[in-house]
């Protein structure tokens, strides 16, 4: 096992969340001294709370994974809160990090920061090539500002940081709450519930042709810790993904097969499809992480996810 973070002080914001839990588990296994600031104790939208957190728990490494966000629903109903909370969360934490002399900051970004009109394999150099998609701009843009702050703080204060751009995650520990959930969790819930209810059919929106990318959450956590160890270029973010495009049809058929659902599948092609292809270019990731690539294929990842969901359904359905 990699012991790079052995005895190091590591603070993980968002460490009790979906991705954060997997990061914390790995860091603890490596022997790191991990601290997770919970929102009820440290509301990191306040600079005072950020400073208190990092003064009480000085950090060799700060992984910033906290965010307030969700599915299309809250992007429509709470654009102001999404904008304000994510912007000040990131800005204040970076300010507190440089004031308390954190060793290195790893900012967790999102593929929603890429220009909305771009399709195909998205390269890091294209991050600033155009505006975010209107449906996610209030969240995507605030995350992107962290890349600007990282560069500015390196130049003026010498603070070391990197910016990672994550593709869509799925796996154990995700939220299955419809106000929150992303495509994989929403489909898994639909299939498991239809299977339990012996429903005769399931309707899916669109043609199934759009191609997206999905990374198993545990692989993503491994990649983040490798990047924390090996990647140091604040001038260019690093994509974290599989680089493999999966059509929504293939995703649906794999979930169908793993759940063993035996009813009929109906594609409602009157509903819109969205962008045809959004996949990250992971060639820089592979070079930066010493040739690493995510080991979990979609079917195996979905099998573990569905087994976890069946065992934790009520808790997962309630989770924010
Ligand atoms: N999930 C994905 O598919 C995906 C894709 C791309 C990027 N990302 C990024 O990955 C990161 C983790 O995502 P996730 O899905 O694991 O999120 P999550 O489950 O919603 O967890 C977010 C965490 O942020 C913490 N938080 C929110 N506001 C806070 C505040 N004001 N002060 C302190 N803590 C606060 C919450 O802490 P409490 O539990 O204490 O309330 C929560 O545990 C996010 O930055 C997200 O943008 C996720």
Key structural traits:
single chain, alpha/beta, Rossmann fold, six-stranded parallel beta sheet, 11 helices, 43% helix, 17% strand
At the fold tier of CATH, the topology name of the domain at 9-170 and 214-243 and 279-295 is: Rossmann fold
Query: How much of the residues is beta strand, in percent?
Result: 15-25%
Radius of gyration: 19 Å
The tally of helices reads 11
Unique ligands:
NADP nicotinamide-adenine-dinucleotide phosphate
Write out the strand line-up for the largest beta sheet, numbering strands in chain order: 2-1-3-4-6-11
Distance between the termini: 33 Å
Question: How many beta-strand segments?
Answer: 14
Envelope shape: globular
Whole-number mean pLDDT = 95
The sequence of SSEs as H and E is EHEHEHHEEHEEHEEEHEEHEEHHH
Low-confidence stretches: none
Structural class: alpha/beta
Helix share, percent: 40-55%
Task: Provide the CATH superfamily of the domain at 9-170 and 214-243 and 279-295.
Answer: NAD(P)-binding Rossmann-like Domain
Return the CATH architecture of the domain at 9-170 and 214-243 and 279-295. Answer: 3-Layer(aba) Sandwich
Describe this structure in words.
By secondary structure, the chain is α/β, with parallel strands linked by helices. It has a domain at 9-170 and 214-243 and 279-295: NAD(P)-binding Rossmann-like Domain (Rossmann fold), CATH 3.40.50. It is built from 11 helices and 14 strands. The protein has helices spanning 18-29, 47-56, 72-77, 79-99, 137-157, 183-197, 217-230, 248-259, 283-288, 298-311, 313-318; strands at 9-13, 33-35, 61-64, 104-110, 120-122, 161-166, 168-170, 201-205, 211-212, 214-216, 238-240, 246-247, 264-268, 278-280. The strands form 5 sheets. The protein has a 6-stranded parallel sheet with strand order 2-1-3-4-6-11, with helices on both faces. Strand 1 (9-13), helix 1 and strand 2 (33-35) form a beta-alpha-beta unit. It is globular, with a radius of gyration of 19 Å. The two termini are 33 Å apart. The model has no long low-confidence stretch (mean pLDDT 95). The structure holds NADP nicotinamide-adenine-dinucleotide phosphate.
